[in-house]
């Protein structure tokens, strides 16, 4: 019987990226998930809070009799020593937002790999979907890298392209990249099975790092162009964007060109649009 590769999976407890990864690896006869490392108790990944059909990786792992760890200090030597007992061949990271220390990166027999839903070195960092939607991106991709001390900066193991229209919402971008990421996972698992993992350095000169969006990234003002306003609305959806009025700010979810729209007529830099509030009354932030 062929020996199975021993895996420790790192993912957020409510991650809709991590759950299908867990299921796919678990069902592969060449791999054995020895443990799940996930979010500390009482914490959730904000990306998925409030969405329909929530997932719970801890509950799923325990139903398969797989140990679950929810450490507060991921870099402690005591935690690293706890994982050593599993003698993992690989650590696989899929939407885990804590930074791994070198003691964990160097723990497995072979490698620690991270699956990132962007075409690295472009769109490194948090919330790549928001920025792709806001930037009207048409050329995207998904990437598997070797984990390194630099965030999303490790050598590229494999990368697959993803075509976008440039008119997607953040959620639509996310869904397309998540779907392609499973194809990427299957290909990487095949390479691991064949022990044919190869990698090459990222071109740091092309690196783009994006942090989590702030209120200013969601703000529409009189200096915003019409097309930019539409891009901001798509990037924020299904949550509202923010419209700057003279004395207050209003949450808005859509626009219309029709005077019959129940919205606020707003002068942008190169035109006017009717902005529809999140509710039918102005909401001051």
Give a quick summary of the entry:
The protein has helices spanning 18-26, 57-63, 77-84, 102-105, 128-134, 170-193, 226-236, and strands at 5-10, 31-37, 68-69, 90-94, 111-116, 124-125, 139-146, 156-163, 209-210, 219-220, 241-244, 249-256, 264-268, 271-277.
Number of continuous helical runs? 7
Mean pLDDT, all residues: 93
General form = elongated
Q: Roughly how much helix do the residues carry, as a percent range?
A: 10-25%
Name the beta content range.
25-35%
Number of domains: 2
Query: Using only CA atoms, what is the Rg?
Result: 21 Å
Named at the architecture level, the CATH assignment of the largest domain is 3-Layer(aba) Sandwich
Distance between the termini: 62 Å
Q: What is the highest CATH level, the class of the largest domain?
A: Alpha Beta
Q: Classify the fold: give the CATH topology of the largest domain.
A: Rossmann fold
- Looking at this structure, what is the CATH superfamily of the largest domain? Formyl transferase, N-terminal domain
Largest sheet: 7 strands, mixed
Q: Order of helices and strands, N to C? A: EHEHEHEHEEHEEHEEHEEEE
The stretches of 5 or more residues where confidence is low (pLDDT under 50) are: 281-285
EC number: 2.1.2.9
Pfam family, one: Formyl_trans_N
InterPro entries: Formyl_transf_N, Formyl_transf_N_sf
GO molecular function: methionyl-tRNA formyltransferase activity
